[in-house]
Amino acid sequence: MWTQSPEGRKLIQEISKGVVAEIAPEELDLFDELVIEYFQDPTPPDLSAKPKDDPLGFGLGEVLIAVTPAATAMVSEVLKYVMNESLTTAKEESAEAVKKQVKKLFNPEKRDAKPAKKEDGEVRPLNKDQLEQVKKLARKQAIKFGIGSDKAEKMAIALIGSLALS
Description:
The chain is mainly α. The chain has helices at about 5-25, 30-40, 65-105, 110, 130-145, 150-165. The protein contains 6 helices and no strands. Helix 1 crosses helix 2 and helix 5 (about 130-145) packs across helix 6. The two termini are about 20 Å apart.
């Protein structure tokens, strides 16, 4: 899939960095390393695993949850969804255009009419239902990666904001 290509990964990284900058700017110094680790192994951490014994008893054995892998997972999942929605829309629009062309072939009055051209690069924004689905997907991915519910919500909103601004 395109999201696994160098170009797709670069886009995922750019968008993820924006989310991390907004939610956890303290991670930006480690961002590149954490993203590389995520791409090498994109599976969520095992949150049920017990932390290793902490011989000093300072609680340092607890798992540290980073926002970067969760943000990268969110963006990856959302890009897959948006691409599928875009493909579906393109198929529907193409089918409709073919139907109109076929009808024109059998209707001499409409044969001379110029076809309406869609502007190159014209992108339809996501509708309200699609944005809600994006938010749910993003939030679910963040939670899978150990992010708390409130922070996962903030991350999802930050991601939707980046979609709205692009």
